[in-house]
Specification:
Structural class: mainly beta
Number of domains: 1
Helix content: under 10%
Order of helices and strands: EHEEEEEEEEEEEEEEEEE
Strand order of the largest sheet: 1-6-7-8-9-10-2-3-4-5
Largest sheet: 10 strands, mixed
CATH architecture: Beta Barrel
Strand content: over 45%
Number of helices: 1
CATH superfamily: AttH-like domain
CATH class: Mainly Beta
Shape: globular
Number of strands: 18
């Protein structure tokens, strides 16, 4: 990997936790000069509040070709309270006729709302090679990367004057790969905040954008502790009867599974007036292995996986367009239940939602 002044090859020290999580985050964000405001209505039952645009429209007219998202989700609260902290990091590559773009974004969602922590971008002339391959994630002035042997990603760092925020993927639990350079990985990881260290899980989604994964598609990452971790990525097919098809990767204590046809229904919608669109706030998820073509008269069995996911709060942004419907980008903190082979598992996580 080429040397980069913002790429680090040693771990940074953990930050001491001297203040409460909420207070420390406010102090850090002010010092960072973040313009994003907290969700003005942090009550979990009122999702979908407007927020500062976390993903401005690129200045280049081109094609998004690769995306890598690393998403930290903290542990479930033992008492069932809504206390989950989520930290999505997204790296995207766009190619155009005369130029290339590499974009980096970092967000933080917790019980009091969402913050857009950073948005950085690099551009270069098409074909000059200065940005490297489209699949390689690049650090920037504040977004730093710690790599280990074999260029394995060890730590993501967001730097500010008041301190650092880190996500450490940690122990690899499961990995699924497919050419060209598609990979889904689930880690036992941690996040280092000014208030201290949070344990949880990290999903690493490396996705070539095109025939299998649409550039404006959704993804969902949820976990139920060690019992279950699941990643769902939208397929490019149009919705049928309100049901969207996703590809699914799931890890349980019994082993790993992949499902090519996870059914996800937008069960409840909420109007997002700035974009003049409806956005989902509740999802129904179902996987059924029954093949009616194999035996049309056979009784359809219970779904292998079924359940619901609900929005606790969200970060929504409207993009530029000619209208009347405008692009929308959303991030949602989730809680819900999944029933796997009859076993009910409480889950928490995050969903990314886009409408072009």
């Amino acid at each position: 990997m080429a040397t980069n002044p913002h790429q680090i090859r040693r771990s940074a020290p953990a930050l001491p936790g001297a203040v409460s999580l909420a207070a420390a985050l406010v102090i850090t964000l002010i010092a960072m000069g973040c313009e994003g405001a907290p969700d003005p209505d942090p009550v979990p039952q009122e999702p979908g509040a407007e927020a500062a645009d976390p993903q401005p429209s690129p200045t280049l007219e081109g094609e998004w070709v690769y995306e890598r998202s690393l998403v930290f989700v903290s542990e479930l609260d033992a008492g069932g309270a809504d206390s989950t902290v989520v930290i999505p990091w997204t790296f995207r590559s766009l190619t155009a006729e005369t130029a290339e773009l590499r974009e980096r974004g970092v967000w933080l969602g917790e019980v009091d709302g969402w913050e857009s922590l950073a948005m950085e971008a690099d551009t270069a002339e098409a074909g000059d090679g200065s940005l490297g391959p489209t699949w390689r994630i690049l650090p920037g002035p504040r977004v730093r990367i710690v790599v280990g042997p074999g260029d394995a990603l060890e730590t993501l760092i967001l730097r500010g004057e008041a301190g650092e925020l880190e996500v450490r993927p940690g122990t690899l639990l499961s990995e699924w790969t497919r050419p060209p350079r598609e990979a889904i990985r689930i880690h036992r990881g941690s996040a280092v905040l000014p208030a201290g260290v949070l344990d949880g899980f990290v999903a690493d989604l490396a996705l070539p954008l095109g025939s299998l994964t649409p550039p404006d598609g959704d993804w969902i990452f949820v976990h139920g502790g060690d019992r279950l971790q699941a990643v769902l990525v939208q397929q490019p097919d149009e919705a049928t009867d309100g049901v969207h098809l996703f590809r699914g990767w799931i890890r349980t204590e019994a082993g790993d599974e992949t499902w090519p046809g996870v059914q996800v229904r937008w069960d409840e919608l909420r109007a997002y007036e700035p974009a003049r669109r409806d956005v989902p706030v509740r999802w129904l998820v179902q996987v059924n292995d029954h093949d009616p073509d194999a035996d049309p008269e056979a009784e359809e069995p219970s779904p292998r996986l079924a359940g619901y996911l609900e929005t606790m709060n969200s970060h929504l942004a409207v993009g530029e367009g000619e209208g009347p419907l405008l692009p929308v980008h959303g991030l949602f903190r989730l809680q819900g239940e999944l029933v796997l082979d009859g076993d009910t598992i409480p889950v928490t996580g995050v969903a990314r939602h886009r409408q072009p």
